[in-house]
Amino acid sequence: MVVVIHAGAGSLSDDLREREVECRVALEAALASAATALRDGADAVAATRCAVVEMESFPLFNAGYGAALCSDGTVEMSAALMRGPDQGAGAVAAVTRTRHPILAAEALLEAEQVLLIGERADAYAAAHGAEQWEPSRFVTERQLRRLHEHLALHEHGTVGAVCLDSTGALAAATSTGGRTGQPPGRVGDTPLIGAGTWADAHVAVSCTGEGEAFIRAGAARLLAALVERGVDLGAAADTVLEEVARCGGRGGLIAVNARGEVAMPFSTPAMQRGVWRERGGVVVEERSER
Ligand code: ASP
To answer: What is the CATH number of domain 2-285?
Structure first.
């Protein structure tokens, strides 16, 4: 069993550097939550959901409470969850009330529709028991400051998780507030199946970075196509980031294949990442910068 998480590719702002320990604890809590679920018999979908819910609760990550603000100071969040064995997919975009957008995405796994947007997506989530908040409650002082200081262009902070469970099933989940200062209505790669999120029988992937380039590159599905053709996971992941660069963007991704191999490259100055592997019982947490 393997769980890999990310908390966004970008450059680390000064306040994130200062609060590095808190970020590390939040990443470890997300891995622990997924690992506990797996040990209790949960599947890959539930494990990725557990990890993402944990990260959506942490205000320094750009998902759920603490999400990045649009140019008008509002929060619009997106999330996707994909189940590898049957390629079941659920996603929401521009939700403003759902406390954990990943729960809305998970609820859609059982629906005929794959992607719901806006108020209707919030209503769907509420009808499936997902907690709702007043939109203003998602706005943190930190994100207001960031919006006013226009620091946004360089910091990301989306969260994601991929998992291989004990049955060999894969799943991928991603959740974001988008990019600080984005125009209301803008949707990035995160909730677009095949762009920011993908899982099938061979590989699960969650992307982060400049969403428009990931969309144009068809990034997550491109990785799956390369893996299916027999390309080594690490090489495939690097190729995807090259293609994203060719489409004018930078970022990173986390991926795990059916053999439990992991790739987590990034082309930005930093990406917060963590890995948990059952074998050896070790929790590895990484917060890399180059
Ligand atoms: N990819 C996300 C988006 O474009 C942002 C991020 O990963 O930080 O909305």
So the answer is: 3.60.20.30
